[in-house]
Amino acid sequence: MLTGTFLGLGALALAATAVAPAADAAPVPVTGLNCDGDTYKCTANLRFGDGRWVAQWNVNVFHQSAASHQRVTRSADAPRTAAAPVPVTTLTCDGDTYKCTAGLQFGDGRWVAQWNANVFHQAVSHAVSAASAKTVKAPREAAAPVPVTALNCDGDTYKCTANLRFGDGRWVAQWDASVFHQN
């Protein structure tokens, strides 16, 4: 029985170390960002552990033309010449629509991936919940959407946070993401 206990504790210790190296602090920087129009997911490569950790979330992928802007493009109008996933060329977030939009290096360059995000000021987020923080509107002098200056994902909270070039620099967009190791 004692041997079984030690074997069980050893297995638990091995499993705990397989989850995430404890030496790195969370959140961690994103080193690459790709989106896939076939799976409708964006994947962020994380600077963490052995470099094979990623954060992934669901997105809408569509072409920005006037004819197809309002519909999701799971149809024949998506060119099949590029391999998926494709690199992200730009990333912006909008405090009016509560969406982040990634420009994709695909086709004619007008393909985007878009997802919902909580957009809030970091000082406000500590005082009230993120849902309540949505009622604090951004100053009107800045145009939306705004560029993202940094992107980090956190394996403890399972959230990605984009720092926004807006106002006093403490505005962020945040969304839920699956964080896992690629085998």
Task: For the structure shown, list the relevant keywords.
12 strands, alpha+beta
Brief account:
This is Ig-like domain-containing protein. The protein is of the alpha+beta class and 183 residues long. It is built from 3 helices and 12 strands.
Structure commentary:
It comes from Streptomyces javensis. This is Ig-like domain-containing protein. Keywords: Signal. The protein has 183 residues and is of the alpha+beta class. Helices cover 15% and strands 41% of the residues. Strands 1, 2, 3, 4, 5, 6, 7, 8, 9, 10, 11 and 12 form a 12-stranded antiparallel β-sheet that branches. The longest helix is centred in the first third of the chain and has 18 residues. The N terminus is likely disordered.
Layout of helices and strands, plus pairs?
Blueprint: H1 2-19, E1 28-36, E2 41-46, E3 53-58, E4 60-63, E5 86-94, E6 99-104, E7 111-116, E8 118-121, H2 122-127, H3 130-133, E9 146-154, E10 159-164, E11 171-176, E12 178-181
Antiparallel strand pairs: 1-2, 1-5, 1-9, 2-3, 3-12, 4-7, 5-6, 5-9, 6-7, 8-11, 9-10, 10-11
Signal peptide: 1-22
Organism: Streptomyces javensis
Keywords: Signal
Specify the helix fraction band. Answer: 10-25%
Estimated structural class: alpha+beta
Order of H and E elements: HEEEEEEEEHHEEEE
| Average pLDDT score | 76
Q: What is the CA-based Rg, rounded? A: 19 Å
Runs in which pLDDT lies below 50 for 5 or more consecutive residues are 1-24, 69-80, 127-135
Count the DSSP helices.
3
The total of beta strands comes to 12
Question: How would a crystallographer describe the biggest sheet?
Answer: 12 strands, antiparallel
Q: What global shape is seen?
A: globular
Give the strand content: 35-45%
* CA-CA gap between termini: 34 Å
